[in-house]
Amino acid sequence: MRFITGSSNHTWSPIMTTDTTTLSYWLNWRFLICAILILAAMVVSLLLIWMYDGSSKSRSHRRENGQKKVAFLYKDDVWKTCYKAIHPNWLLAYRLIAFSLLLSLLTADVVLHGVRILYFYTQWTFTLATVYFLLGSSLSIRGCLQSCKGSSGASTDGVDTERGTYIAPVPENASVLIVSSGLNSHGEPHDYWGLALQIIFQMSAGAVVLTDCVFWLLIYPFLTDKNYKLHFLAVCMHSVGAICLLGDVFLNRLRFPFFRIAYFVLWTCVFVIFQWILHIFVSLRWPYPFLDLSSQYAPLWYFAVGILHLPCYGIFAILIRIKTCWLSRLFHSAMEM
């Protein structure tokens, strides 16, 4: 049992060094710089969301001569696969299995270690990935049922015939389908659930890579207690989420516009602010040593982790680009995207 849960006496969390409830802990140049970094990241992220998601509807109505192009997602993109030969039922089955696996691991983690385990960014991210597979499974079930009933049979045939082969992406947003004149009638636009699925998918993708990279490349080799022994559940919490999302990437046909890194950045900023508020009122150790504001290197740590969001998010963007290019070359006639 200890192999699965690990020892409760030794953790990789840093020891408590400073009382975080004192004014001196917060009223200093270190916190000021870190707060500016977090605030700047949130402002830039919100601007990106407003520019590309918040105003996309109004911009689409203001298109002139096809020069205004916006990201677009069809309703059946959330439940169909990227390759015709793979039936959507396989994606549905995969999402159900992934959801069951992630929920089981998360439940086991909470039962064995208590609700306090949700104090960590790892569990936040794992929960987000679980929500993605729950929502994805629900939308896949809805899509497959509608397909079986034949309610969207005619429109689906129209999509396959008229959209036909793969539409090459533009350099600005490689994984975004471009809405051009006359294309809107070829498929039913997404609903809010579809947009939510795509956003959660992109947030989860970046977050699981960030979590796993920080743990395996920084925390475990350099910042753990010498008596800490890696246990099975910890390995699963820092690997299974990424593996499940990778499998979904190779099956689904969701786009991956790069501007939605803004949601990923906001997710991390919310976690940091949550930790700040908690530590203002309760003096307890930080979940990760680089969050500790008592260190003179705290601003550098915050900046470094912030920059790390780019490659962590970019890995999935590159994988989806590779998948799209590979399928378009090998199975050009069978591509549905």
From TrEMBL:
The keyword Membrane applies. Keywords: Membrane, Transmembrane, Transmembrane helix. The keyword Membrane applies. GO terms for cellular component: membrane. The chain crosses the membrane at residues 29-52, 92-112, 118-135, 195-219, 231-251, 263-288, 300-320. This is Transmembrane protein.
